[in-house]
Amino acid sequence: xxxxxxxxxxKAAAAAGAAAQFSWALGRDTARAASPAATPAGDAPVGVxxxxxxxxxxxxxxxxxxxWPKGAHPAGQTFALTTADGARGVPVxxxxxxxxxxxxxxxxxxxxxxxxxxxxxFTLAAGVPATSAHRVTVTxxxxxxxxxxxxxRAVVPQGGRRLVESVTRGGTRIxxxxxxxxxxxxxxxxxxxxxVTWERFDGEISGATVEQRGPxxxxxxxxxxxxxxxxxxxxxxxxxxxxxxxxxxRMVHTIxxxxxxxxxxxxxxxxxxxVPMRDAAYDRHIRIAGEGEGFLTEAVQGITGLxxxxxxxxxxxxxxxxxxxxxxxxDQRVTSRLAYVPHWGDxxxxxxxxxxxxxxxxxxxxxxxxxxxxxxxxxxxxYVGGVGGGLSFGLRxxxxxxxxxxxxxxxxxxxxxVTLWLWSPEAQPMDLRFYHDGMGQDTYPEQLEGLNIxxxxxEPGFGTPYGIARTSELMFWANAATPRADVLVAQxxxxxxxxxxxxxxxxLARAGVFGxxxxxxxRSVPAKARIEDQLDFLFTYYKDQxxxxxxxxxxxxxxxxxxxxxxxxxxxxxxxxxxxxNSELSPDLWLWYAYLRSGRGEIFRFAExxxxxxxxxxxxxxxxxxxxxxxxxxxxxxxxxxxxRISTAVYRRPYYFLTADERVGDLxxxxxxxxxxxxxxxxxxxxxxxxxxxxxxxxxxxxxTDWSGLAAAWLTEWERRGPKAxxxxxRLRSTMETIGAQPNGFVQGTGLYDLDTGRFAVxxxxxxxxxxxxxxxxxxxxxxxxIDLIDMPAFKDAWLDYCRYFNATRAExxxxxxxxxxxxxxxxxxxxxxxxxxxxxxxxxxxxxxxRKFLDSDGYTTAMTWEKTPLEGPAVLEPGxxxxxxxxxxxxxxxxxxxxxxxxxxxxxPR
Length: 911
What we know:
The chain is of the alpha+beta class. Among the domains are: 1-38 and 512-617 and 825-911, no CATH class; 309-341, no CATH class; 648-793, no CATH class. The strands form seven sheets. It has a 20-stranded antiparallel β-sheet that branches. It has a five-stranded antiparallel β-sheet with strand order 4-3-7-1-28. A three-stranded antiparallel β-sheet has the order 2-6-5. Strand 21 and strand 22 form a beta hairpin. The two termini are 29 Å apart. It comes from Streptomyces kanasensis. Residues 1-27 form the signal peptide. Keywords: Signal.
């Protein structure tokens, strides 16, 4: 943990301890009751700092989100960012990302540029922002968009095959012809008789739009698809980010797979730029990052190591990347023979696994490659250019999302070509075929039998990747000259870990956002400290398992596994529904709430990778299932359960509001109309006992995993004031009203939903239909937020009743509802509902039950031993450690229950 993070934890613990004395007395609404750190000064300044040491470094800027208590600031409020000591104002661009129902600001986003460099802590408060020495400007003329940061100028066409026409600095063209390239082959490379033909598709732009115009930050979005002749493949969406005064820009690149899994094998997927080469060959430089801070440091025409010495000063200048003196001043035994020193114009670094890269070079096409080194995990960064300027380039998560590759071609000629391969053409082609032949599971009864043995919910035609997506992040610097070694190290670090500003846990909790279900870490008493240790153990365990089990790869990175196989000492990566987790029981939420209360950068980065993955790869973005996610399985798209519970916006909301990430904002907006998917696919079609045909005006939708996903999208659109905000608010209110009107409220389980009115039918007959899964995919968090936002007593009462009775005795359930809830599970995870009801109703009995269910029902009880069992060969492939009692379902629910119980009833914890 960084010193900054440690200081944040100490401050958070002090704030939480001081607040515990009055948390029970606050009962006006959930957010207040659940946020012990809340104070009356809702408009108080907010402290902001970097997640990791190093500050802004070489990055062009940073964007961060800050929440505000209800009523603290009106819409349109301006904000000033100053250094923590108040000595200097920092230019900041502000916009609203969410509003409270009363119209006041709920979340604001703030962008800073290079002027934030060199400062560790800041203060954000209402005020007039400082003016900048630079201003990013955007102009649109004809079919071009020009963005000028004051240091570099980029021209973006609104059509054609170039993403970026040119990037200039001081009148010098540093890069041109930024474009996308896709390589396809029509069959895999199976066998040893291959003669596969590759096809190249070029990215074709359908349109470019300006999303932000400055003064600190500008954003240009470019959409299109890859094309070869009349064939189009893999639509893309690319955003370019520019900051005032910056010499660099960021790219966020998304592709969606729309091919045929049996015929379209992606051989290469890349972003390519042309870099003019103006300098003499000995003044042209190649820099390629290896592992850590390592670099290959070379010139296109090297004058070091020769049989004749041009002079120590000349050699040292070339290694530093400086202009060499006139060759007439060198030792003439070198100068007269320069024509015989090779020009090395082509370089390739290929990272085909998470553990190894190779680096090679050649003098040019048609010539043999020479090994230039290798190592473990490359940074994914390079530079090509010379003393007159050049381009630095980098691909984030380079080795984590292998196979990746960096190419430099033609650096000995008039222009070099740089390609950042998101999928390396030297790897095996991308193979997204379903992994088995169906094994005769053609009917629902056969598929249910399969589910009962491998836990895989198979159905022919459902294991398709059509419509899944992946987002990658890249950065580019237009350098006036070859950068010094320390600058290159800083640029590579900015690619690996883009600097992120963030508010601290106390300020996040004080705002009462996300249902007020978290409070800063508090180790003030041994019982709380014990739970904090357990939470730390679990996070560390999963972080270590990612490394130990190599949960990496282009389509896999960011996910974790579901269940462990104690016999093989291996996660069940090849056993049906026990393999990739795909957000089952909300590990995404566990991680985000863990970050919100701790401010730990390593948790943020883990949750960030999961959000990028689960929102893109586990969800369909095209086709008839667009808006639905896929249940856990051997492949992320393999299971036939396509449901709202996976695609739900509740898992994306924290990352969006903390970073204002536009791509994640797109994902949530796209879900606003996902209630239409119930016309296409019935989530429980295989287990219905009565005939059912989807009817637009009578769709069967569950109040748990189904409605919570819909509600999350509607809430997000409403509070963001998106294009469909009016519809979203109406849907929220009408469904909340008609759930509250059900004879048994949430215990009714499901209702018939009318797509035209947005209302559930209210039957006369009460029904008891409770599942242990209903509330475990974001329903708890959604209800806490909605009750705080919308005054609807019947809905609140229905939810509180569900919370009170899930963990009640069968007799208590039957006395209230006329029948008990049946055989239930996940009592520990549901203890947070006891805690919520206890906080709302100020009920000591419910608080006591919450802690009993948390500590000694199921899940990780007080009998759990928290220790690591070492593993080594021959029992396992790689040495490491295991804990046989840990499963991801239990971890997610334990983590959420621990965090929420501590926030809501922490002062009632048994000591």
